[in-house]
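Quality-control log, excerpt.
Job 1 of 2 completed; input and output follow.
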Amino acid sequence: MIKFSLILLAIITFSQCASAKFDNNPPFQITSAEVQTYSDGKSKFQGKSLTIRYTSKQNIQFDSVFFDKLSTNLQPKNTTESKMLIGYFTNKEKRDLILHENPALELQNEIPIIKELPFQLKEHEAVISYFIKGKKKYLKITSIKKE
């Protein structure tokens, strides 16, 4: 009974923390978000770029973006016309797997590294992180357009 109570308490605590992570009043406004897929055409190299346009009167230190079960650093690309953030997500070239009747030979295959993202995101959703007065904050973007 005590174990059950502790597990229930932990679930309630973490579920409330997960919903409280997002900033509802950021010091900037997202004006658009678009994702593009690109490829070099020759090899298996391909990826996606997520472009986020925003307006702000303050200087903001943007950190990273979580999108499509991946994360990457945000790169600011400001022009005289608009302020932009770009995140590049690349799919590394897939290596050949060794499949053999002798299982010992299959031990040479690389073990995939699977990172668990801290957010549950739907398709066309992303989360960006940024710093305000040294404190890390998060904002969910829910309307990403596909180009």
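Job 2 of 2 completed; input and output follow.
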Amino acid sequence: MSNHSIKAIDAIQEAQKIAFAPFVFQATVSLRKLGVFDFIFSRRKKGGVSIDEVSKELEISAYGISVLLEIAETSNIVSKNDMGLYELTTIGYFLTYNETVNVNMNFTNELCYKPLFHLNESIKTGKPVGLKELGNWKTIYEGLSQLKPLEKKAWFEFDHHYSDDIFTEALEFVFKKERKAVFDIGANTGIYSVFSSSKNSTSQIYSFEPNPVNYSRLKRNIGYGKQLGGIGLTAATLGAPVAVGVALIAFVADGIKRDYSEKKSQSDSVFNIKSRGVRVNNFTYGGGYYG
């Protein structure tokens, strides 16, 4: 048995932390949501706050506050001084105000916590058993736009936090030379298409998304309707099984006005939309254009 040079007493302590980790996590979530961390931090120059002060300010029972703070204290998230006043530690500060930590906390709590209860069954069956906690779908992607508001917000904030910089690097490579067309296959809700439009307004961007629910969000995000009002748009269904074959062809004309007259055929439908150009910073999520 490898001990990695750790003392038995320290190993037991770490094991106990793992055993009670869910308590610490959920207590931290509550302290964030209830505004306790914010209140303690706002009083940092006064040398800390008492449980009664927090209880009175936030109108929460003193017993409830004491339970949460005692749990947080075990993981050095808050500290209690000799006068019994609580202060936010550096760990507590980052749990409250660091962007990456916030994204990870919200993603874990809103989307992963309940499904993780089914992890054992998922490993044994090779199926996403825990997904049923969110909805009746075979994959999460089928239900993205059907998630509850906080779930949806957590998903897209996580997605954008870790992918936006990658898109920028990818587009630098793609547009090293002039491109007449760019194909975004598996476009999901369209952010790569919008980034491509911003990077090179002379290219035609062809965005394909097979999932009908994501497809409807894709249309909204790149200008269909009045959300962005920014991109000329042609929507086409490929073949009879719409749920399997749905495609979006976006002719990007950044800064150029153009009209598409209404046209219908067996394989495609063209909608009459005016284009005014689109900016990446207009592309939002979590109740916005993703909503």
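Post-run check on job 2. The domain at 8-97 is CATH 1.10.10.10 (Arc Repressor Mutant, subunit A).
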